[in-house]
Amino acid sequence: MDWDLLAYDAAPVGIVVTAHRVIRGCNASFAQMLGYEREALIGQSFRLLYNTTEEFERVRDIGLAPLRAEHAYSDERMVRRRDGAQIWCRFRAQTRTPEEPLAQLVMSFAVIQDGPSVALTLRQRQVVSGLGRGLTSKEIARELGLSPRTVEDVRARLLKRFEVKNAAELLAHLTIG
């Protein structure tokens, strides 16, 4: 028995290997999480996980500096399943090529919450993603090219919508929903 292969394939989280944001290999958990057959994912761009090209590019850009500096990056993010449903995931990436971080990445995706109860707009997902990474409204605004007031408005609407008092409660609500 190949224990290494069993560990990879039977891992309770999705594991995927990419080269320049194209899927080169993945385990059964990753394919199942997204609603695909594994063979259908091989050779596909990671673009299929995001609703827009803008979101796909923005996600790439925010992880590049940490990948270069620390060879690793993590956050929480929404990804799209084959059926269009959104899944809230804990994402981790490790580059094998820090000088060109996207040339060879190993990533894991762990579902935090599945289903439509977390239906958020692109802007709301961007703000929640920043909050999940511990950023302030000013830092999120700088990253997204928005005014801090715009980020505060989005944040305030989310707090009201989910009937929570602060960002920590919002993230907890979205995580355990």
TrEMBL record:
InterPro entries hit by this protein: PAS, PAS-like_dom_sf, PAS_fold, Sig_transdc_resp-reg_C-effctor, Tscrpt_reg_LuxR_C, WH-like_DNA-bd_sf
One Pfam family it belongs to: PAS
Record's keyword annotation contains Transcription regulation: yes
PROSITE patterns: HTH_LUXR_1 (PS00622), HTH_LUXR_2 (PS50043)
Coiled coil: none
All copies of domain HTH luxR-type, residue ranges: 113-177
Keywords: DNA-binding, Transcription, Transcription regulation
CDD domains with a match to the protein in the record: LuxR_C_like, PAS
Keyword rRNA-binding appears in the UniProt entry: no
SUPFAM superfamilies named among the record's database cross-references: C-terminal effector domain of the bipartite response regulators, PYP-like sensor domain (PAS domain)
Gene Ontology MF term list: DNA binding
One BP annotation, GO: regulation of DNA-templated transcription
UniProt-recorded name of the protein: Transcriptional regulatory protein UhpA
Primary gene name: uhpA_2
